[in-house]
Specification:
With 315 residues, the chain is α/β, with parallel strands linked by helices. The protein has 15 helices and 13 strands.
Length: 315
């Protein structure tokens, strides 16, 4: 668990982060969102002491990070930034091996870890380990940046606008990969973004900041249906909040068991699809009900338009 207690950062008379407190549960993703100048990146950098706080403290699993030398602290906390920050004169393998070498790992273990992470991020070790950053696409560079952040087997991963420079298609894929990696490795992630859709997709809880202050820290559905501040309501999007709510629920979770005859020619939708995606598919096809199928292609229920719309209402 990461506990942020009364954290503040001041530069002279300017307060960049103002008495922020919240807790990030272990093995979850928390997202900090806000406009430019809201203090979100400064807050993130105080967790690994790239920025020293003016007041307050950060605890990881009950231990104050101020009690540990900064360079040692950073070796056990992964850190990924927008634009990946790879060393241009080092190969992919050498970039990923940076922290393990600082930790004194034996070369055999380092090599195994590099190969493991490249495979995890769907980059063939034989094809990519010896390449240099300039030989990679933007999406590949970003994957290598994440691999480098994970190389030391950290329990905490900090990400500062990691997907901001990617085009929409690659960005969506990178988000899906992050969710899969986080579930597989069980790491605790704190991610900064200015994109509320990204925050809702990735975050179990989302912190909304403005002018250095924390306005609300809550589950995405709560931010949409019960915003505690007018700025939070504007950030979450008043005009399309019903559609955003539908994006938070999967077809699997909302599917209704079928007791009667089969649905015949009803379109099939993946259990992993969001209700927003299912509704779009039904409207496109002119259908009123869809069959929900799991990863094996087996039906696990159905969804009617009325079932979907019920999930888009404030609760």
């Amino acid at each position: 668990m990461i506990s942020i207690e009364g954290l503040s950062k001041r530069y002279g008379d300017l307060t960049v982060v103002d008495d922020v407190s919240f807790e990030v549960e272990s093995r979850t993703i928390a997202v900090v969102v806000g406009t430019s100048g809201s203090g979100k990146s400064t807050l993130l950098r105080m967790i690994n002491r790239l920025v020293e706080p003016s007041a307050g403290r950060v605890l990881i699993d009950g231990q104050d990070v101020a009690a540990e030398p900064p360079h040692l602290l950073r070796r056990r906390i992964g850190y990924a930034i927008q634009g990946h920050g790879l060393f241009p004169h080092r190969t992919v393998a050498q970039n990923i091996a940076t922290v393990p070498r600082l930790l004194g790992w034996p070369e055999q273990r380092i090599g195994a870890r590099v190969a493991e992470l490249l495979e995890l991020l769907q980059l063939d070790p034989g094809a990519f380990a010896g390449k240099y950053p300039h030989q990679l696409s933007g999406g590949q560079q970003q994957r290598v940046g994440v691999a480098r952040a994970l190389a030391g087997d950290p329990k905490v991963l900090l990400m500062d606008e990691p997907f901001g420079a990617l085009d929409p298609i690659i960005r969506a894929k990178a988000q899906d990969e992050l969710l899969a990696i986080q579930r597989r490795l069980g790491i605790t992630v704190v991610l900064v973004t200015h994109d509320m859709d990204e925050a809702f997709k990735l975050g179990a809880r989302v912190a909304v900041m403005s002018q250095g202050r924390l306005l609300q820290f809550d589950r995405p559905a709560t931010l949409l249906t019960r915003p505690e501040d007018p700025f939070v309501a504007r950030m979450t999007g008043i005009s399309d909040r019903a559609l955003k709510l539908l994006s938070l629920t999967s077809a699997r979770d909302a599917a209704v068991a079928d007791d009667g005859p089969g649905l015949g020619d009803a379109p099939q939708v993946a259990a992993t699809a969001s209700l927003r995606e299912v509704l779009s598919e039904l409207v496109w096809r002119g259908a009123t009900r869809a069959t929900v199928v799991d990863e094996r292609g087996q039906a696990c229920g159905s969804l009617a338009i009325a079932d979907i719309l019920a999930h888009g209402r404030a609760r």
